[in-house]
Amino acid sequence: MITVRVPAKVNVQLGVGGLRADGFHDLANVFFAVALGDEVTATAAEGVTLSCSGPDAAAVPLDDSNLAARAARLLAAHHGIADPGVHLHIAKAIPVAGGMAGGSADGAAALVACDALWQLDTPLPVLLELAAELGSDVPFALVGGVALGRGRGEILEPLAVEGTFHWVFAVAEGGLSTPAVFRECDRLREEAGTGSSDTDVPTPDADPALLAALAEGDPVALAAALANDLQPAALSLRPALAATLRAGTEAGALGALVSGSGPTCAFLVKDAEAAAAVAGALRASGTCRTAHATHGPVPGASVAG
Ligand code: C5P
């Protein structure tokens, strides 16, 4: 039996370029891994089967559409294993369809767990390629820490970061579909008259002030540089998130933004004490389902114990 811990992510910068011919958008995506995470346990079994526990377990698909099952089958196929056998149990803490890459995290964790269970010793570069086939956010869940993702987010460059940053995540009622949020971003750009294709929108780049704030471990500077090009689209689809962002800011957060495609809202705070206070205020505000205090960066998917 192998248990793998895997982090959720928040995008401290999500620069979104134009719509490409393949349906994806070029990104300047600064991923930040946080301690709020899932655990995936692999045990030997007949066929590929899944189970899930946790408060949101009912929202997690347990069929072959789940990225954990797809990861197990992809790894097996890569090694010529015709009839893979594994049961994967997902202990779910990452909000489902929340913009924190929870499904991608489980895919990355399943790659690592099956690799260990089946004693395959797959080199990391190969695991990263398989991860990119599974989804744009899966490679980052393997590496963790803080990294700049280019292309559709899968071309990763680790970034220097000093110390620990403290975060609060406000979990919304219900999720948002990532493709729907990207489509809304394109629609808003068309409406604004700027155009939405990759010939209209300049390729985004990482913000030097944000990179400096990370390297210096400066939460005030990082808070000032937080930026998410998908935020207007998430707010357009879910206007109530404006009240959540306001509640966290009024409770003393240094900075606030929608996490990825949302609807989870992320709040950067000064320290662990401020995190507990802001999480408490958010829970009491009635503007979210629950709130979690956490920290990062933390490593990517790794075998526990
Ligand atoms: O790569 P992944 O399967 O997670 O992406 C889900 C969807 O999100 C894509 O089908 C696409 O609609 C959108 N997406 C995008 N540009 C990216 C990443 C994702 O448009 N860079």
TrEMBL record:
Catalyzes the phosphorylation of the position 2 hydroxy group of 4-diphosphocytidyl-2C-methyl-D-erythritol. Residues 210-286 form the GHMP kinase C-terminal domain. Keywords: ATP-binding, Isoprene biosynthesis, Kinase, Nucleotide-binding, Transferase. HAMAP family: IspE. It comes from Kitasatospora xanthocidica. GO terms for molecular function: 4-(cytidine 5'-diphospho)-2-C-methyl-D-erythritol kinase activity; ATP binding. The gene is ispE. Gene3D superfamilies: 3.30.230.10, GHMP kinase, C-terminal domain (3.30.70.890). The lineage of its organism: Bacteria, Bacillati, Actinomycetota, Actinomycetes, Kitasatosporales. Belongs to the GHMP kinase family. IspE subfamily. This is 4-diphosphocytidyl-2-C-methyl-D-erythritol kinase.
